[in-house]
Amino acid sequence: MKAVPKPTPDTQPFWDGTAAGELRIQRCRTCERRYFYPRPSCPHCGSGAVEWVRASGRASLYSYVINHRPAPGFEEGGPYAIAVVELEEGVRMMTNIVNTEITPENLPLDLALKVVFERRGDVHVPLFEPAGGAA
Amino acid sequence: MSTEGIVIAGAAETDEVGRLPQHSTLSLHLEAARNALADAGMTKDDIDGIATVGTPGPIQVAHALGITPSWLDGTGVGGSSFLFHVRHAAAAIRAGLCTTVLITHGESGRSRVGAGRFGLGADSLMGQFELPYGVVGPPSTFTLTALRYMKETGLTHEQLAEVAVAQRRWAHLNPRAMYRDLITVDDVLASRLVAYPFHLLECCLVTDGGGALVVTSRERSRRDPVHLLGAGEAMDAPMISQMEDFTTSKGFRLSGEAAFAEAGISHDDVDHLMVYDAFAHVPIYGLEDLGFVKRGEAGAFIAEGHTSPGGRLPLNTNGGGLSYTHTGMYGMFAIQEAVRQLRGEAAAQVPGVEVSVVLGNGGMFASAATLVLANRLP
């Protein structure tokens, strides 16, 4: 079975967001910059005055591998893309690319993507698919 | 100069490296420690400082050896930790906290006898933001940067494969290397895909072994010392997904700049180079981020043979993590090979090595440290 993330108080708003169909990142109220991964301190200016904001869910494909040695729960469906995507808001996160054929030819870098959510136990995990729809 | 007057006065690996299921993790530390002390012409009673990474950690290693240190360092930042330990030991010795430091590495990476357990909790940051995506250790994470680098610089799949080919040429000359048969680019590209774009022969080995160093002041050294001319340490991000720029390692750049500046050397002074090579792209980043070649040039530089036997910048001359050995925290072996080259004792000895640079990586580009070593003072 695929790994299920376990929220902490720092990350709970992120996972509450995915359960509600929203991708949330943090924004510093002092310097107004956005960041990810969740933490209660702005990495740019050091302020503790940070808030959660909804990201658009639009992203581009920054880099990836096609993994041929599956992790538990990933045995079905063949090699899969472990990717890092850059959100429209400028932050990056790891994810899987789904709803498209996983081949190098089909996954050019900078491909436009949009977020989808997959239920995993009690948590919804953000995945990304090509913005142009399934190939 | 935080390193002035500091030397590596003893250095040795375990009797064997490779598949050692009869050795526990602790016994690998102890065998390496005994070998390094013998190499230094010292006994355990000369040692008053200890540095190592857990498992099993400095207390266990010192206690098992019967050493009562007045200085301990358990810095554990991945495979580069031993380079950090050398730098920290130099500072501690110069500060008068101790006089002679033993740095040990032992890892049952392949056989996992008495080894630490892998695995992060589901509530860790990696457990929440990387593991759910089916990552399976370094082969599916450390490798993530390569396609972006290839797109930005034009590095080809064949050039990536050439890294493994070049290092196998060195391993071919080293009887201790796990894999010694010469290989071609076609062999590399025909080996099975592990995580596209990486094939099996572009991924490091997983082995058992260890190594140890004795670091002290020049006056206390009892043999031809290897001088520590400069050192630097740095970091990037704790998770590969958060690395600042997938086409260059901030840790490599910053630690290299610090070490070169402290040593007061230029690239032309460097006769020999070790770059931690967990995967074939890492030496490419190392050559560029240390400034030996310009951005985007490292692939061609390696493919043209400049890092191979007879080339002008001999690189990873033991065969590296790709062909010699890789216990998990390979940095110790990179230092060991630099010491051997500087002493003229390497299996694939490069003529006239006077200055060697060692670049260590920890985690997935997470930490980095650089040492400038020499067999003469400038």
Query: How many DSSP E strands of chain B?
Result: 11
Shape of chain A: globular
> In the CATH hierarchy, what is the architecture of chain B at level 2?
3-Layer(aba) Sandwich
* Spatial gap, N to C terminus of chain A: 27 Å
Instruction: Report the structural category of chain B.
Output: alpha/beta
The CATH architecture assignment of the largest domain in chain A turns out to be Beta Barrel
Give the strand order of the largest sheet of chain A, numbering strands 1, 2, ... along the chain.
6-5-4-7-8
Mean pLDDT over the full residue set of chain A: 96
What does this protein structure show overall?
The complex is a heterodimer of chains A (135) and B (378). Chain A starts with 11 loop residues before the first helix and ends in a 5-residue tail after the last strand. Chain A is mostly beta strands and 135 residues long. In chain A, the strands form 2 sheets. Chain A has a 5-stranded antiparallel sheet, covered by helices on one side. The model of chain A has no long low-confidence stretch (mean pLDDT 96). Chain A folds into 2 domains: 8-55, no CATH class; 56-135, OB fold (Dihydrolipoamide Acetyltransferase, E2P). Chain A is globular and about 45 Å long. Chain A is built from 1 helix and 8 strands; from the N terminus they run H-E-E-E-E-E-E-E-E. Chain B is an alpha/beta fold. In chain B, 31% of the residues lie in helices and 19% in strands. Chain B contains 12 helices and 11 strands. In chain B, a hairpin with a 1-residue loop joins strand 5 and strand 6. The two termini of chain B are 13 Å apart. The chains are: A mainly beta (135), B alpha/beta (378). The A-B interface holds A 2-8, 11, 15, 37, 62-71, 73-74, 79-80, 82-84, 92-96, 104, 109, 120, 125 and B 121-123, 125, 127-136, 139-141, 143-148, 151, 192-198, 239-242, 246. Strand 4 (58-67) of chain A pairs antiparallel with strand 5 (193-196) of chain B.
